[in-house]
Design a protein that fits this description.
The chain has 279 residues and is α/β, with parallel strands linked by helices. The protein is built from twelve helices and nine strands.
Length: 279
């Protein structure tokens, strides 16, 4: 069994030098399919260390209304899993280094076929895959197929995760694990830092891969506070709201890309400041 993690993800965490990785989440195809690759490049220029690219799905049960709306807009413009993979391949033509993690649901993968998806994702240059509704008990073969193609299987942990569940995920997970800091859906407003710190301590008893934290991080200040304890900070809903607000005001995807990158740069500056590296 191959146990090595994807080299791009490994390299990012090695190079951070004590700073948490900044991981923006965007929905592929929103605000427009033709702007997604430009948005990915703009976020990297603004300080993103890893891109989480959401695969639009018609029933995104773990996501709140902001990401649900983004998925609906993307699907209305003809987005599909294959088109998401095509976007990653296009991104790779100019950026061979920034890791790209796909985040989505099992249904589109099952429709394509697990092995066909894994092969196509590897060819496109995908580094990791987080499938919300593949529990570790049912994902062993899928995870092994990804590992054999040098793609990291990434799993969610939640405040309700038992020690047994954490141990099972620790056996399968590569790259990083994603700790959901709130009970509920993405985009909720409050985050209890003290509780996150306690949970991270519990997770690290079993998990040797880096631990990212997401859900509920909506400002540079909250990102900085989480970054003091986590290996990565994941921001999705607030970033998508920034895109949404720009589109409502200007109806211009290029301006929305700029607005998203500008906002993310404020988070990046806060992480640098928090790590003592200046803005």
């Amino acid at each position: 069994m191959t146990t090595a993690s994807n080299q791009r993800l490994q390299q990012v965490f090695k190079q951070l030098d004590g700073r948490a990785a900044l991981v923006p989440y965007i929905t592929a195809g929103d605000p427009h399919p033709q702007s997604t690759v430009a948005l990915m490049h703009a976020l990297v220029a603004a300080g993103a260390d890893i891109i989480e690219l959401g695969v639009p799905f018609s029933d995104p049960m773990a996501d709140g209304p902001v990401i649900q709306r983004a998925a609906e807009r993307a699907l209305a413009q003809g987005m599909s899993l294959q088109k998401v993979l095509d976007m990653v391949a296009e991104f790779r033509q100019q950026d061979p280094d920034t890791p790209v993690v796909l985040m989505g649901y099992a249904n589109p993968i099952e429709a394509m076929g697990q092995q066909q998806f894994v092969d196509a994702a590897a060819q496109a240059g995908v580094d990791g895959v987080l499938t919300v509704d593949y529990p570790p008990e049912e994902a062993q073969d899928f995870a092994q197929a990804m590992i054999e193609q040098n793609i990291d299987p990434i799993f969610l942990l939640a405040p309700t995760s038992t020690d047994e569940r954490i141990q099972k995920i620790a056996e399968l997970a590569r790259g990083y694990v994603y700790y959901v800091s709130l009970k509920g859906v993405t985009g909720a407003d409050s985050i209890d830092i003290d509780d996150v710190v306690q949970q991270l301590s519990r997770i690290r008893r079993y998990v040797s891969t880096p631990v990212g934290v997401g859900f509920g991080i909506r400002s540079p200040q909250s990102a900085q506070r989480i970054a003091e304890h986590a290996d990565a900070v994941v921001i999705g809903s607030k970033l998508i709201q920034t895109i949404e607000a720009s589109m409502a005001a200007n109806n211009d995807p290029a301006q929305a890309v700029t607005a998203a990158a500008q906002w993310l740069s404020t988070v990046h500056d806060a992480l640098l400041e928090g790590a003592g590296k200046g803005a």
